[in-house]
Write a structure and sequence with these properties.
alpha+beta; 4 strands; four-stranded mixed sheet; about 260 residues
């Protein structure tokens, strides 16, 4: 059974217990990352009904298409004879059509994101040398989730990163959440959710709110470290920082795997 994690890093407390399944790649080394522009083919099909675009979605990106249709949109199975019609109908909504156009404008060039992802995941490899690098791709997630991780892939829903002042966001999302829906949060979210895929909270152990917050703090601490930015500055992160100063020999795998006392 394929297991997929969907989410927004700022909302980890709501969904940290979701399931994962990642297939290993043969090469452990970090490489320069280029985000696959699945979103462009997706948009072409969903705005024009272009059959060649649909063929590319199904043959070039079968895993991405399955994850989008079955796990994110929940509109059926990819082998359903009517699934293409359902897929088109879902995105006929005028709001989603406008969002796709806005994504094309804002993210015509994502070379800066490619560069930042490459740098961040090189740093992450130094801390987690046994990790496998996923295939990155961009998509339109219909405002469902920001990041999806599964089957050695990491999908970025660009429609969830259109900016604090994006008019639609102001209608539906509180100000605090909109702060996370910006271009600068794409790389931290990718790093954070990929770490969470490797080190999920042990559901057999303490799943209290405190345990969830502590686990989130560990992950956010590592995100800060590999991005070399103070992305997260909450009390949980500060507790981890204090612990690591007192215990400098603690490795990042030990930190993420262990049940540590920050007191």
């Amino acid at each position: 059974m394929r297991k997929v994690y969907l989410g927004v890093l700022a909302c980890l407390l709501l969904c940290i217990g979701c399931e994962w399944h990642l297939k290993p790649n043969d090469d452990h080394r970090s490489e320069e990352i280029v985000v696959e522009r699945y979103d462009r083919i997706q948009t072409l099909y969903l705005t024009t009904g272009d059959r060649s675009a649909l063929q590319q979605l199904n043959t070039r990106y079968p895993g991405q298409t399955r994850m989008l249709i079955e796990d994110m949109l929940n509109i059926g199975h990819v082998n359903d004879p009517m699934i293409n019609s359902k897929f088109l109908h879902y995105f006929k909504d005028s709001v989603l059509q406008a969002i796709m156009i806005d994504v094309e404008k804002q993210y015509a060039d994502i070379s800066d994101i490619d560069k930042e992802l490459s740098q961040a995941f090189k740093e992450l490899h130094k801390l987690l040398p046994d990790m496998h690098q996923p295939v990155f791709y961009a998509q339109i997630g219909a405002l469902n989730q920001s990041i999806v991780v599964g089957d050695s892939m990491l999908g970025i829903s660009l429609d969830k990163y259109l900016g604090v002042d994006y008019p639609l966001y102001e209608r539906y999302y509180p100000a605090e959440q909109r702060q996370q829906m910006t271009r600068k949060m794409i790389v931290p979210d990718c790093v954070g959710f990929y770490i969470l895929s490797l080190y999920p909270l042990n559901e057999a152990s303490d799943t209290s709110m405190l345990a969830r917050r502590e686990h989130m703090g560990k992950i956010q601490y590592v995100v800060n470290r590999v991005t070399k930015k103070r992305v997260f500055t909450n009390d949980n992160v500060k507790s981890v920082e204090a612990y690591m100063r007192k215990n400098p020999k603690t490795s990042i795998p030990q930190l993420l795997e262990g049940e540590l006392s920050y007191k």
